[in-house]
Amino acid sequence: xxxxxxxxxxxxxxxxxxIERFVSLRNKxxxxxxxxxxxxxxxxxxxxxxxxxIDPDRPSIDEALFQQGEGGAPxxxxxxGSIERLIRPGAPFDVALFSWSL
Amino acid sequence: MVHALRRAGGYLRRGGMLVSxxxxxxxxxxxxxxxGRSRVPVATLLxxxxxxxxxxxxxxxxxxxxxxSFTLAGAQAARYRIYLARPxxxxxxxxxxxxxxxxxxxxxxxxxxxxxxxxxxxxxIEVTESLIVNGLRRP
Lengths: 102, 139
Description:
The complex is a heterodimer of chains A (about 100) and B (about 140). With about 100 residues, chain A is an alpha/beta fold. Chain A has a single domain (about 25-100), classed as Rossmann fold (3-Layer(aba) Sandwich), CATH 3.40.50. Chain A contains three helices and four strands; from the N terminus they run H-E-H-E-H-E-E. Chain A has a four-stranded parallel sheet, covered by helices on one side. Chain A is globular and about 30 Å long. The N and C termini of chain A lie far apart (about 30 Å). The model of chain A has no long low-confidence stretch (mean pLDDT about 90). By secondary structure, chain B is α+β, with helices and mostly antiparallel strands. Chain B has one domain. In chain B, about 35% of the residues lie in helices and about 40% in strands. Chain B has four helices and five strands. Chain B has helices at about 1-10, 50-65, 85-95, 110-115, and strands at about 10-25, 30-35, 40-45, 70-85, 125-135. Chain B is elongated and about 60 Å long. At the A-B interface, helix 1 and strand 4 of A face helix 1, strand 1, helix 2, strand 4 and helix 3 of B.
């Protein structure tokens, strides 16, 4: 019952475990829509083949890129943008993940 | 939302999976005071505006299934809990949430403060949140 840094999201590993009930992310090409600051992305990316993670909010993408610079995860391609305007040669993906984006 | 789902489907290989994670529409966030095995409910938070968005998301998912863009692979709902040390952290916690934010019902925050003053030493404030995960497969 320890109180840690405040967050409105589940603890680490909670969402990946739920996702894995539908599809394994291991060695998959993942498109994440609404990645925010990469909070969830960094949790599953080590198991994925590659991740294209997009979000329309620049400060969030900047934070994600900063975290990536600090901690690695070179298989994530963070990009500013929305699914409506995405141009991505190299599709198709194995998994499209709408993470808390309506 | 329907357009975004269709677009995402267009980037998926055949047999690929679209996964949607979002707050549960009807399992509303709730606040309780916990101490040891004791758990005293305080309030259920309200967020009518956001529930409209969640209903629209559900409708969009149903629509892309109905039109044949996806087949429903399943749904999984789950609850998770967050523990706060004192009432002032509840305000901070709520401010972390993107608008429209949940709020206490009338008198709910006052009830939390009143119950907290009589809570035993070592008590914590428990926030129960919920989410739903949908899996949709591209035919």
